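Methods — Computational structure assignment.
A single polypeptide chain was analysed. Its primary sequence is given first, followed by the predicted tertiary structure written as C-alpha cells.
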Amino acid sequence: MITLLAVPSRSVVERNILSYRRIWVIIVSGFFEPVFYLFGLGVGLGELVGAVEVNGVAVDYAVFVAPGLVASSAMNGAIFDSTFNFFYKLKHAKTFDAMLATPLRLGDIVVGEIGWSMVRGSLYAGAFLLVTVALGLVQSWWAILAFPASLLIGLGFSAVGIAITSYMRSWHDFEYVQLVLAALFLASTTFYALDVYPDWAHPLVQLTPLYHGVSLVRSLMLGSPSFSDLGHVGYLVGMTLLGAWAAKRRLSSLLQS
C-alpha cells in the first residue's frame, strides 16, 4: 500500500511508522473493540435473534454483523489518526511547519497523512477480516475484495477527517467527532438491515458514508455483489477526492499564509 504512494508522500507515511515503533501497542489495541462487539452482539445476541434475511437469503446474525464491523474498523482506524493525532501535529507539535521547511510540498503532506490514516484503518479491517474467516463467517470468495473495499473506506474517512480537523479550534471540538462516529456506527446498517428503520429514515441512512462502506463489504462477504456496489464505490471515491481537495485548500491557508 505504501509503495503505491509517490516518494515524497511515502516519506510522510514512513515518518508516522517510525513515530509508533515504541508505542505499537496503541495501534494493536484498536483491533480488539470490533472483536468484542462480534462476540457480544453478533454471537451472543445472535443466539436470540436467529437468522436474518439478506437479499432473500437467510444468514446467521453473526454473519450479517461481521461485514459491518469490518467496515467500521476501517473507519475507526482511519478517523483516529486523521483527527486526534493530526490535530496534535497541526496545532501543538507544529510537525507540518517543520515538514514544509524541507523539500516536501503541501500536497505531499496531505497525501502522506491520508495514506498513513488509511494504512492504520486497513490494518484493523484486515486483521478483523482474518478473524471472520477463522470463525467461518465468510460466505464467498468474493470476500477477497472486502480488503480493497476497506482501503477505500479508510481513504474516504481519512480525507474527510483531515479536512474537518483543520477547522477544529480545541480538543473540546472532538466531542462532536465522537458523537458523529457513534451515530454512524449505530445507524449505518451495521447491526440492523435497512428495512428495520422507519421509511422516513431510509434516505438519511443512505446518505451516511459508513452505510455505503458497510453495504459494499457486506455484499462481497455474503457473495452477492451487484451493480449497486458501483454506486457505493463512486460515493467513497467522491468522498475521498472532495475531502482531499478541502484538506489541501484549508491547510494552504493555515500553513502557507
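Note: The first helix runs from residue 7 to 19.
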